[in-house]
Structures are given as C-alpha cells and as structure tokens.
Amino acid sequence: xxxxxxxxxxxxxxxxxxxxTGLARMLSSDPRVEVVxxxxxxxxxxxxxxxxxPNVVLMDLQMPKVTGMxxxxxxVQEIPGLRVLVLSAYADKAMxxxxxxxxxxxxxxxxVNFEDIIDRILSVAPASAMRLKRMRAKLSLRELxxxxxxxxxxxxxxxxxxxxxxxxxVRNHLSRVFNKLGATNRTDAVVHAMRAGLVTA
Length: 201
What we know:
Strand content: 5-15%
Helix content: 40-55%
Order of helices and strands: EHEHEHEHEHHHHHH
CATH class of the largest domain: Alpha Beta
Structural class: alpha/beta
Number of strands: 5
Shape: elongated
Low-confidence stretches: 1-5, 128-135
CATH superfamily of the largest domain: Response regulator
Number of domains: 2
Distance between the termini: 33 Å
C-alpha cells in the first residue's frame, strides 16, 4: 500500500457535474489519493493537467469542446509519465482500442464500486508495483480462447456454444482470467489483455 504521506494526485474530468463532484468527494476521503482538480470538458482537462501535474487523470470520453479521446492523446504527449484512465458508462471493443491507441492506460466503467475505482487508480499510478509486467500472467490456451470471444462481444452462452463447453465452464475460465489479469469485469479484462498484447483491437 502506498504511504499516506505520498498520495496519488488525481484530476477528475467529466461534464456531468453530479458525477464529477461526487466522485471527487469520495476520492478525497481516501488518504492515498489527493484530488488536485476537476474539469468540465476536455479543454479544461488539458489546462488543469498542465498546470497541476497530476499522476492520474480520470477522463470521460464524451465531453464538449475537446473530446476525452483527443484530450488524452494530447496530454500523454505533453506530460511524460501521466496515466489516463478513461471513464464511460459504455464502451465496446473498438472504443476501448481507440482509447488505448490514444495513450490511455485503461478503462473504468462508471458502474463499478468506488473501491474498484481506487484500486484502478493505485494500480496505474507511476510508483505502483502493479504494472503491466505483472499483468502478463500466463493464460491457458482455453482461457485465451474464452478471452478472445469476450473481446469479440460474445455472451457466455454464445462462447459456450462456439467452444463446445458449458456456460458454467465459461464462467470458471473467466473467473481465472479476471484473477490472473487483475480485472474486475469483462471490459476491464479486455483492456488488460489488449495492453498485454493477448488480444488485438
């Protein structure tokens, strides 16, 4: 666990005021995190990140003036070592792939628990030991097959039918995949796998 006297500096960028302020307030309650700013659009996100030098930016993809995707692309070029986690209530494989190509470190579903958001922030922070090399856990051939079907957007039932296994077996494989990749859900697993080169966009 990160020492409390060296918190992760976080900037929250989201055009939904209630979500942004609520998330910032909750993050501020954790001693491992210091919220250094809030941005209402991509333009503000760029300005505040350059001025306040956060370690991690939580970046909504759908924002006015400058999109979260474009803001991410510009910030990772301007600030070496900055980690960006994109926020979205929905993201398909193509969107996740585009976000990663823009320089985002990962994806956070807006529906996840607050503890999961904290875990993701700490996992991507520059000083964290939980970096990409530790996410490259060996997957079995069957686990890799299942993961690729998830990346293609298939349901457990569709995966079971395609691979000729039961839905229970699919769930068991996914549970092991989540554990090995440090993922909290299907989208998170796909993001980690894409980062590790296990699946392609």
